[in-house]
Structure formats: structure tokens, C-alpha cells
Amino acid sequence: MRIKIGISMFVLLIGLLAACGNGTENGNEQETDELKMLEVEFQVPDKANISETIELKAIVTYGDERVTDADEVEFEYWEKGNEEDSTKIKSNNNGDGTYSADVTFDTEGIYEMYAHTTARDLHTMPKKSITIGEGTSDDQE
Hints:
- The chain is of the alpha+beta class.
- The chain has 2 domains: 1-35; 38-132, Immunoglobulin-like (Sandwich).
- The protein is built from 1 helix and 11 strands, in the order αβββββββββββ.
- The strands form 2 sheets. Strands 2, 5, 6, 9, 10 and 11 form a 6-stranded mixed beta sheet that branches. Strands 1, 3, 4, 7 and 8 form a 5-stranded antiparallel beta sheet that branches.
- The protein is elongated and about 70 Å long.
């Protein structure tokens, strides 16, 4: 009789552990869904000429989904070493998860820029740089 009770308890314990395991898997699926990241592919040419209009473009995704309704996508740029004298411009929402703005640089130099992006209660700001002309200005020489 004791062996039957022992076996029954063992089978019951295995059943409870299996049930707990199934609950954990469902919990992991929910956690995976919640761990989506806000990603921004910031596209900027490496070089451009003085007075050439270039497009700054941000492709915004959340997980595998393109974000067509970001709260903010704003570009900020400045000449390298002079970040306190930056310029900010709002982007155009192209309706397909891409945000863009045209900009023209009037002087040679290396310019750095952020794509300030806020969506899904998250903020990210990838940074890029571009060389205009030869990449040197009168101040840098």
C-alpha cells in the first residue's frame, strides 16, 4: 500500500511540475513581447558638397513593426567640436515608418548629428556624422 501511495505522490508531483512549466513558457512569451526595442536606422551620406541639399532619414521600428506614429523625430546637427551651437529641425512623417528632412550646409567641415526619436514611451538618439567639402573649415586649419 505504501508503494502505491508513494507512486501516486510521485505522479502527482510530476504533473504539478509540468503544469508549472507550461505557465512559465506562457510567461516567457509575454516577456519576449514586452522586450521589443525601439530602433532607428539613421541614414546620412558620408560626404556632401557645400550647398548641396541632403536628406536626413530615420527608419523607425518597434520590434518587427514600422512605427508610423512616432511622438517625435527631430534632427539636431552641429559642426564638430561646437555642439553648444546646434540646429534642430523637425522631420516630415512619410507615413511608412520613415521620417526625413532636407538640410544644406554652407561651410566645409565635419558635422555631427542626432536623430532624436520618441515613440512607444521610449527615446533613442542615434548619432552620425557627415563631411562637407574637404572636411576642414577656416577655424579648423
